[in-house]
Amino acid sequence: METQWDIFGIGTVAVDDLLYVDHFPLPDSKVPIRDFQRQGGGQTATALVAASRHGARTAFCACLDQDDLSQYALQTLIKEGVDCSPVFTITGSRPVHSIIIVEPASGSRTILHNNRDMQEPHPDDINPDWILRSRVVFFDQNAPRSGLRAARLAKQLGIPVIADLEKIGLPEMNAILTSVDHLIISSAFAAALTGQSTIAEIMAKLAAPWRAAAVMTC
Q: Strand 96-103 to strand 108-114: parallel, antiparallel, or no bridges (unpaired)?
């Protein structure tokens, strides 16, 4: 079957409401909002949009409903050229919704997020044809079971797997880590995962014969 997508992604999509303020509010205070923006976000969705903007053919798999947040997320991805035909319509499943307080003067932000309504696809619903039609598979920590299913299918086909992870204690964590060719994790997660403290020690632990790259973000 001819490859259809450069990147097939399973994982997080978010709706981010950004509140711009002159300074972070103190407890029991009032601070005027200088600007407000609504944007799409989420690790997998953001990665796919970035790749799409650079000309890659991308596809996104997740569970969304018909509510306003779900439809905003879906339409934003489609507008950016991401193929959302693998998205499942599941009652009650919504994107992550974040309120982000931004202090432009310092470049700092605080994220208040709600992901209690987010559901990942069932592993059995991951269509092997989707993987076969892709050059790369990408997933994050909010799709651990379906991501692992996709990764295992990809490994059988010799297709590279990228994972962006930031949570300790995922189900089948060892299996996930051994299935990932290109690993992307935060510095705090990397330190907790490896039990090491210096960058050199952490990266030495993350390196593996089967791994093409290990990336630690800050």
A: antiparallel
Rounded to an integer, what distance in angstroms lies between the CA atom of residue 112 and that of residue 216? 23
The pLDDT tens digits for 112-162 are: 999 999 999 999 999 999 999 999 999 999 999 999 999 999 999 999 999
Structure tokens at 208: 């593996």
Neighbours of 202 (CB within 10 A): 20
The model's pTM is 0.92
The CATH number of domain 5-180, selected from 3.40.1190.20, 3.40.50.2300, 3.10.450.710, 3.40.920.10? 3.40.1190.20
Q: How sure is the predictor about 2, in pLDDT bands with cuts at 50, 70 and 90?
A: low
Tokens 């596809």 appear where?
59
Tell me the C-alpha distance between 112 and 14, whole Å.
12
Contacts of 127 (CB under 8 A, 6+ apart): 86
